Amino acid sequence: MLNVAIFAKDSSTLHTIERLLESYHTQLFNPHCYTYPIHLNPEFRANTFSFFILSLDDTDIDALALAKKIRQLAPAVPLILMTTRQRLLPDLLTLDIFDCIPQPIQKTQFFSTVKRLLFSLKTTPPLFHFSEYQKNLAPL
After folding, report:
1. Is residue 96 classed exposed, middle or buried when 0-12, 13-18 and 19+ CB atoms within 10 A define those classes?
2. Is the pTM of this model over 0.85?
3. Quick one: residue 96, left, alpha or beta (phi over 0 = left, psi -120 to 50 = alpha)?
4. What is the 3-state secondary structure (H, E, C) of the chain?
5. pLDDT digits (tens, 9 = 90+) for 68-100
6. Residue 4 to residue 6: CA distance in whole angstroms
């Protein structure tokens, strides 16, 4: 099961994302939903999330700061951003995001992103690799 942190200021967006993840696969995702960035910060330190989904609007400075903090603390964890405004794109591109999905959320585009994300998580090499006597050994 993959732990997913979902941040959106409005609960309807949270529920939409949660339902889409559930309809993609009923038992693959364990969503943790947040409406305030301050609530995600302590959990972020305590939990290990497989990926983050953040919904940003044009005036959402808190969420943009949260995305920057996530990227500093977990540079390798995939970050999916959803936004209604293209004005944020220059700031978002500096965060090395996995994907940016325009809102309102379209099911086909969301599923395409999740499919690519799952493939990426499955094929990501281990953090370290070593060999001994010309035999490759995988980390435990």
Report:
1. exposed
2. no
3. left
4. CEEEEEECCCHHHHHHHHHHHHHHCCCCEEEEEECCHHHHHHHHHHCCCCEEEEEECCCCHHHHHHHHHHHHHCCCCCEEEEECCHHHHHHHHCCCCCEEEECCCCHHHHHHHHHHHHHHHHHCCCCCCEEECCEEECCC
5. 888 888 888 999 988 877 776 777 778 888 998
6. 6
| Angle of CA points 98, 103, 109, to nearest 5° | 55
Q: Which two tokens stand for residue 118?
A: 């799952």
Residue 71 — φ and ψ, nearest 5°?
Answer: -65, -35
Residue 135's φ and ψ, nearest 5 degrees, are -115, 130
CA distances 56 to 48, 94, 134, Å, are 22, 15, 49
User: pLDDT digit string (tens) for 20-69?
Assistant: 999 999 899 999 999 888 888 777 777 789 999 998 875 667 777 888 88
Q: Which residues of 115-138 are buried (b: 16+ CB within 10 A; e: fewer)?
A: eebbeeeeeeeeeeeeeeeeeeee
Question: How far is residue 52 CA from its own chain's centroid?
Answer: 2
